Request: fold
Amino acid sequence: MSKGGKILLGIGFFFSFLSLSFMITIVLAIFALVTYPLGSLCRSIGWILFGRNRKIQYVATGISILILFPVVIIGILQSDFLIETFGLTVGQSIAISLVAWSFYSIIELSSYYSLAKADNKLFYGAMISTVGIIIVLGNIGNVLQSTNPLDSLGAVYYALYFLIVSSLLAMVGSFKSKEE
Reply:
């Protein structure tokens, strides 16, 4: 793993860990407004740097995060705008965010698998994010029916625990990866 990619991925996964940890509590969730974009940006650039001389899959992972994480933010923070402009419900706005997040998370999951096979077995452990993704996707119907943003996000609350473990393992795996 290139030094730049390794460091940025590790930092990105650290910020992801912080974001998920903040979201566990309503009081600290506000801090995720800073850590989530930072983590997503670091991870996307890290994957791109890592993949540019190796596998297009890693570049695609970085690009998918870079394109879709703003959709996640807009769907959650600008739900009023989406509701007024496009006639969406609160549940639909949040569901768009969760589907965008799930899409890039599945792509990132495939890169975990590829990296685990090639470089670092800790990424096998990071694949526990699969459980979190399944929880999120399995609750999209509940989210769509929700009229309150906190209720809709509460439907996917338990996914956070699996994602926290995944981000920690991916962070350690990134920092421990061999440089090429």
